[in-house]
Predict the 3D structure of the following.
Amino acid sequence: MSDQHLLEVRDLVVRFRTHDGAVHAVNGVSFDLAAGEMLGVAGESGCGKSVTNLAIVGLLPKPAGRVEGGSVKLDGRELTTLKEEELRQVRGSEIAMIFQDPMTSLNPVLRIEEQLIETIQAHREVTKEAARTRAIELLTAVGVANPESRLRSYPHEFSGGMRQRVMIAMALALEPRVLIADEPTTALDVTIQAQVLDLLRRLTEERGTATILVTHDLGVLAGMADRVNVMYAGAVIESGTTDDLFANPRHPYTVGLLRSIPRLDGETGGKLVPIEGRPPDLIDAPVGCSFYARCAWRTDRCATETPALLPIDGGKGPIVTSGPTATHVAACFNPVAPAEVAEGRPLPRAEGATR
Amino acid sequence: MLRAALVDAQLARPPRGLWGDAARRLRRNRPAMVGLFCIVLFASAAILAPLIAPYDPYAMNGSSLDAPSLTHLFGTDLLGRDIFSRVLYGAQISLFVGVGAVAIALVIGGALGAIAGGFGGRVDGVIMRTTDVFLSIPSILLAIGIVTALGRGMPQLTLAIAVSYAPTFARLLRGSLLALREADYVVAARTIGASRMRILVRHMLPNALTPLIVQATLVLATAIIDIAGLGFLGLGPTDPRTPEWGTMLVDARRFMQSAPHIVVFIGGAIVISAIGFNLLGDGLRESLDPKLKR
Amino acid sequence: MGRYIVRRLIAAIPVLIGLSILLFAYIRILPGDPCVAILGQHRTPEACAALRENLGLDLPLWEQYIRYLTNTLSGDLGASVVNSQPFLAEFLTRFPGTVELTIGALVFALGAGIPLGRLAARKVGGRIDGLITGVSLFGVSIPVFVLGLALVAIFGVILEWLPTQGRIDARARFDATSGLLLIDTLFAGRLDLFVDVVRHLILPSIALGSIPLAIIARITRASVIEVVNEDYVRTARSKGLKEKTVDNRHVMRNAWLPVTTVVGLQAGGLLGGAVLTETVFVWNGVGRWVVDAIQNRDYPIVQSTILVFALIFLVVNLLVDIGYALLNPKIRYQ
């Protein structure tokens, strides 16, 4: 692995201080993102997806949340140690974000115009007029009709889908190199979801924007992402190209996740199977595999040792961390065999067989 | 199997009801406990006044305007009456009139609010416009109006304070009831055909009571202040010798230069009682509203 | 916006009618012969006849009410039974004093309350937050007259820093046209007297402003804490805005909304509190006048003061609601 990635996250650790003790929200997350790539991040709510993203841009809720270890590098530049003012210049301009709920993510008392222009003017020495012209371009690009008059509107005068388009326009205003979209369509109607996702994909492809697309909806990732990270209890537990991961999931949690979503192609015909149990309380320091309590494949080793993220074929070659040839890795001592995937649980074995 | 045991232990935490939970949170809330202490102090001064007051609050027991001493803890007033004893008996008036007024206000306001919020329609409109009228008059002026119209005296004082708070209670209860009308479990009760009255009494009122309890506690603080205010304006008890805190302050004020401690003792008594109810009210609000849990 | 104002004005009509009925009843529920009850020791056969005529006491009740309504609407708000002075004339000479006092209190409450609330919100749970919470608790728990007396004792009697009685040095001679001494002294070119008026205003303003101060600080704190956690504030930060811009534009523009409403509601408390504050500071305003009226059983004065204060309260809240609508686009375009 010689060349540097656009974004490199290494062993990121985030803790939240609460009245009940420290919450181990992110426990050593590492991943890379290449220019132009779209990385999907999947996992249940509370698994650390959003916290990881907020930590990257230094927006963890203060003073409770803190990055307690690891590094985040953008183009080789360390972000976790930047001063607030330097980090501010990165935000919005080099790394932009889109959040889940467009109803609450736009300021209700400010016109769309003000919210777009202030973004541009926060990073560029341009006149208000120039910023306004740019705002109109952006609204046109995201498909808002009559952009000139709509600039004068307030967020509540827009539909949810339109608001999310405005959010996208705002995020792309400064041609950022990285776009983090945190559940960008979860709050929208299904039909609108598809439109917004299409738009997002088209604009990021056109501009070569590297994107992190966070969602709990694996269906969305299947059609959009180049690669997928599956997260559980504050850690990446499986990662690979979208094709590899969907065709050959190896971590019991990924298998469970895939089996718990309805499929429209009807190919499997199998029942929907929920994953039993709840994610662990992140207040306890993790001991052993975090999925242990819910896992059908667990062994005694899983209770005491934490599995590392390793190539699924046990190969000794270099691990490729981005791009279409990315290595498929999983953190599991007892990965799911391909034959077991459809069943969703270990197949009965012959007496005496051991693993 | 340590992990599994941990998970089980967590799921096995015994469930507690809303009230149990609230009581536990309240006990942990230090400001609320300080408030409770102030209230206990105030209430025992009031209730035990006849037992613990060293002197008859109406009788001359020393020379005029004695400084605080061991014989007269708070000193004496112009007529040589023991101020400590008078402050204790003053607590009695504040407590009885205050609690009485808030209780009456709760009954009147609660009934109006329940009718308005429970039945809606034209009744609601009439009740709400009526409360608007009362709320448009600054509360101390409303109380002044009532006392001047009915004449001075404890019952009138109590009623005046009660009338000026009742509209707030009515609106508060109505507001909670309206919000609850859309609550899922109320809609559910309606779908299975529970009667209107049953839904109101069994499902809505108990849940709407919480803000009312909090408000009543906070209003007790205001009531104590307002009673003293009316007394200070000369609208207190009929007998000017009555040891009512506000009335006593009128006298005390005349000796601000020579005996400032009198104002401090009486004012302090009012402030401590009011702080007590304010602290407890805030604490109750925090512990009764699980959403506020942080 | 125009429609909104009109709707609010229409909504005020039933309240005004209710208010007039209430105040009409006020004088008529006094026990005993109205002439004796109202005029008391100032009773003479002539005065009695005039009162009967004026109130229409010999007419049926509803006609009395109509008469009260027409009189009130034509500006006849009754007269003092003590000196037969018409209410309105006397009221207008005293009102500027009350206006000056309430504005002074409001300036104090807003000027200190909002920064304190913002400061507390920035350090939630910290020592400063605790201190400010304590101060605001004290503010709502101390009666204005007790605080007033304490201020008089400390700053007037002991330290002798500030005057504790009246609105201006009693020996001052100048042309008081508007009755608002702050303005009059400036127009008269008497800077020395202007300073004197300000000095007189300080203690009463603090006494009267302490409750609104406490409430405004609390609501500002709560409101800022709530807004700070809103998604759009996170959005604003994620756009790389300067912290100051986030604070002033995104946080405060929204946090203002509940504060505005509360300020309007405090107007009632201020008018009521003025009655007590003016008594403590021997302040020549409506409040002290009404206290005198209470002591003299001058019911028409009490009655009309309540009416006028209620009207002012309604108007202030209407203005505040309009201000709220201007700040909040969701309402503005309804």
Remarks:
- Confidence is low (pLDDT under 50) at residues 1-15 of chain B.
- The longest helix of chain B spans residues 83-119.
